[in-house]
From TrEMBL, chains A, B, C:
It is a multi-pass membrane protein. Keywords: Cell membrane, Membrane, Transmembrane, Transmembrane helix. This is Trimeric intracellular cation channel family protein. The lineage of its organism: Bacteria, Pseudomonadati, Pseudomonadota, Gammaproteobacteria, Lysobacterales. Residues 5-77, 91-164 form the Glycine transporter domain. The chain crosses the membrane at residues 6-22, 29-51, 63-81, 111-132, 144-163, 175-194. Pfam families: Gly_transporter. It comes from Rhodanobacter aciditrophus. The keyword Transmembrane helix applies. Its main location: membrane. Belongs to the UPF0126 family. InterPro entries: Gly_transporter. It comes from the Bacteria.
Length: 209, 209, 209
């Protein structure tokens, strides 16, 4: 039940980022809603398709579809009153990343897959929606930028797996994982939390690669 | 049977757009044919994968594959004699959009899914092939441009669902839906049919979002 | 067994290209590893999802996942000592293309699909990972460039199908196919092997298409 609600909030958060992201280009209401829906439902769709579950989650339970649709419409009108859209974009994106990653990790674990698969699918589900959004709105993908993005998702998924191992089915396992991801992302956004330079790939001068 | 033929024509139309789109960059015959095939088969593939049907349509019936292949080869040589390629591109794209959307909507309805799923999958099938084409040929996706594109697909799918509700299995239901989409797209292309400005998302000055 | 090893080598090769490709932008260790893994596992994932096999290969056998992960980490540190990264990128890419195409063609044939499907899926598996890599790192897709890329994959897949028809289950069928692809790619890279101009699509002057 908790996972259900967290999943819904994650969908709403990602739908908002899809709408704000589209603002980089003149788009009409319905195209924006479409981008919002693709952003919010994309990650979980890829997860379910790869895991070969019986039915993709929003086909089985269309309330997900409605939440994605209504959040996008709401966000379309709501963003007009927002002063600092970039900040809302990054907060909502981090929030969605945190929720999607832990919900997916829990779901995959509960389907009986190994921890390695659970962590992989958790990270993929968390980052894929935003990746598609960035590609479609012609922005360099956030997850592949120089910010601390994929690592928090990985650490959060890892925490959920470790907690489930030691205190299985504890109510707040997913909350702890989501908090870890969100806090690390906040540090990344505000404090420029970053890897030491020997863990960065630097292009050499006079080279294209 | 009618749906089968309409689907084939849609594949041919989208294959042509894939070939013309590739002309923005120097490409060889086989790469162009590949782009044509991905464009024409991509939307339906995503639909079938999400709906978990028994087999993706072109794997089950390879005549779709042949139509996509031969139309792409034909288009490769055919475009040389076309004077106004941009117009042909937009007409073929609108034609493909119209046919794919209604064929998918009918197919999903006939598989027993709800109208909400049928409309969603109809729109996704109609726009996804062109989206992939635009991404791969490095053009801003048409569907996310400022033109009237996703809305006609949505209205056409809605019309098909309403007609199927009231006059089920009527032969021409899909024809009416396709006509609606195609005519709305023609208006969009030639008359600049567009949303009122309060339904558009405007970037604010001095803001990136 | 041979196919298994070839598949693993192909994954390692593509992981390296993903890492080198990411060098065009400042990225951290984990994002680069993610791009390497998506590049190396993406093509086969699309193949398995379209063919509706029982389980996607790296979900069933997580050793693929580990090979992709470890090769990416290794490549991240390894590329620092490489002088000519562009050449390594093109060699590893050609190597991965050759191996993935023939492994996929063999696999699809052995699942009982028709030669037409086997060739199509072979080419798709070979080129899709690199396509995703190029899209995510904002480079024009190699396969859609003016270089000889999709054609070698097609010819190699065709050779494998022909060999399997005439000398079924011969040990080296896939080796011959891979060699053909790799050699044709080497010619394309070093000698500019190319189609005659009547098989190229040329943009006309003063036209956008």
């Amino acid at each position: 039940m908790l996972l259900y609600i967290l999943g819904m909030i994650g969908i709403a958060a990602f739908a908002i980022t899809g709408v704000i992201s589209s603002g980089k280009r003149d788009m009409d209401l319905f195209s924006i809603v479409l981008l919002g829906m693709v952003t919010s439902l994309g990650g979980g769709t890829i997860r379910d398709v790869i895991l070969r579950v019986d039915a993709v989650y929003w086909v089985q339970d269309t309330s997900y579809l409605w939440v994605a649709f209504l959040s996008s419409v709401f966000a379309f009108f709501g963003v007009r009153v927002i002063e600092n859209r970039q900040q809302v974009f990054h907060y909502a994106d981090s929030f969605g990343l945190a929720l999607f990653t832990v919900v997916a990790t829990e779901r995959v674990l509960s389907l009986g897959f190994s921890p390695m698969i659970a962590i992989t699918m958790g990270v993929i589900t968390g980052v894929a929606g935003g990746m598609i959004r960035d590609l479609l709105s012609f922005r360099p993908p956030l997850v592949l930028g120089k910010e601390f993005y994929a690592t928090p998702a990985f650490l959060g998924a890892l925490l959920v797996v470790l907690l489930e191992r030691n205190v299985p089915f504890h109510e707040y396992n997913s909350i702890y994982g989501a908090l870890l991801i969100f806090i690390l992302r906040l540090f990344a956004i505000h404090k420029g939390l970053y890897y030491p330079s020997w863990l960065l790939y630097k292009k050499r001068e006079n080279h294209d690669y």
